[in-house]
Amino acid sequence: MSEPRPPEPRSGPPVTPSEVEGASAEHLNQRWAATLVGALVGGGVRHAVIAPGSRSTPLALAFADRPDVKCWSVIDERSAAFFALGLSKSTGTPAVVVCTSGTAGAHFLPAVMEAGEGGTPLVVLTADRPWELHGFGAPQTIAQVGMFGRYVRAAEALPTPDEEGLTHLAAVTSRLVHLAKSAPRGPVHLNVPFREPLAPVGGALVIDPPVTTFAPVTVTADLSVVNAAIASAKRGLIVCGPRERNDGFGEWVHALGARLGFPVIAEAASNARYGFPEAIGVVDTLLRNQRFAEAMKPDVVLRFGGGLTAKGPQAWLDACGARIFQFTDEGSPFDPNHRAEQLIPFSPSPRLGEGRGEGRASWRATWATAQDAVLAIDPGNELIEPLVARHFIAALPQGTPVFLSSSMPIRDVDAFAIRGQPLRVFTNRGVNGIDGITSTALGVAAGTGRPTALLIGDVALLHDLSGLLIARRHALSLTMVVVNNDGGGIFHFLPIATRTPHFEQLFGTPHGVDLAHAASLANATLHRPGDLAELGRTVASCLEGGLHLIEVRTSRIQNVDVHRALFAKLAEAVP
């Protein structure tokens, strides 16, 4: 009697019961994904950004089968996440970004961090291998549970699809999308494992499960303390940092300032500066005049939005000795030096203060007079970075969605671009990174459905070249003004610029890239204006539609002296 022959070797993991059933497991994957997507749609999701991959097949097809979801295919996961971030910012509702298993989800981290610190709702779906493939070398398998750490508001490690768990899946998914939209808003993560087979059975399967609604936590804000402080204030200020919600905040806060007699200092990204001539926008210049800074210390400060971009005004506020009340609605409160007396949940409806502020009219007028004196100074017509920022803003038509890159562009716009048409301004000021800027701006263009303007530096543009493919593939209209000083210009403003012989190699980092190649990569029209007037005309014409790269070449070496000289000239004019 011969020995029994061993079975033929089988590649991969042992056969699971669900795989033996084949089609039934396949159909369960389809139902699981359709239930999850149905709960997201019930929670308000209308955009899904999908990076290609195999393990995420059930999720990708479930989104594609929904007529009420717009699907965006983005090849690179990092760009996909930033593109979804821009969609969330511009639509006010959480977009979804989807990827396969393995390192794919790790590329979401920078955008997740930005969403977490910036208070932007975002739903992250990472497909995964089932638990029996973990820990024994299966390809494209990493520990994905908890991979975003504290940067997400909530995370769920889902089980593999289970018939008995469909109702609970809908409830869990509904809860997470609610948390993404609730204060403090931010990203949430669902890790979604699937067993093979991954391809669908039959036609499209659209499921609209009953979506559980969750009432937000009610927080009663007692305004009695802040109202008493306002009533006794002689020199009150309203300070507005970055704030992106499209909820009429600008009109509300300026009406409040007029009623209380409090000047309104409005950062460029506050959406309370452009279109509001009474806004104080040259505060960085005003406070460089030491006499003015000392004489104009407030006794009460009402803070709205995120942290200020410029260090000088923030340091002045922290040291002025005023009672500071912070109204927070975007993510975590900004109070790193713990100066705020109260943190108050905010929407543009609470009735702050009693009576009117006629007695503070001269205080408010002093700030306006000082700003008018600064704005009366002719800064010249040289093609330098501060004036590029000013003319860029001045050229934008009313209502243009505009994205300001981190690093020098947001600083130059904040300091030098004061007056202009009403605009809707977006930035990534949660963690202030220069990664994913182009992709986020394209998400804004997609979410608003309007030609969008972007002011960006050369290094940030090179950081996100793959983002240009989004514009090419989806025919999005974006006008990119790229300030090209061949390297990291912001580092020249730091002490390290004069303290090491390795500065140029490690910090200045000249790249020598001809940006015409970047324009060619995305089929963008390249423009190289020769002066400020031509820059303004070019920006206005490009915003009629299409993808445009407007390159403005400046001197990184001279940029620090240019800024200092202009600041000194303007500060000297302060009465």
Provide structural commentary.
This protein is of the alpha/beta class. The chain folds into three domains: 177 residues, Rossmann fold (3-Layer(aba) Sandwich), CATH 3.40.50; 151 residues, Rossmann fold (3-Layer(aba) Sandwich), CATH 3.40.50.1220; 188 residues, Rossmann fold. It is built from 21 helices and 17 strands. The strands form three sheets. Strands 2-1-3-4-6-5 form a six-stranded parallel β-sheet, with helices on both faces. The longest helix is centred in the first third of the chain and has 20 residues. The radius of gyration is 26 Å and the shape is globular.
Which secondary structure elements does this structure contain, and how are they paired or packed?
Elements (H helix, E strand, L loop, with lengths): L16 H5 L1 H20 L4 E4 L6 H8 L5 E4 L3 H15 L3 E5 L9 H10 L3 E7 L25 E4 L8 H16 L5 E7 L30 H9 L3 E5 L8 H12 L3 E3 L16 H4 L3 H6 L4 E5 L6 H9 L3 E6 L11 E6 L15 H15 L9 H11 L5 E4 L3 H9 L7 E4 L9 H12 L3 E6 H6 L4 H7 L3 E7 L18 H6 L6 H7 L3 E3 L4 H11 L4 E7 L2 H17 L3
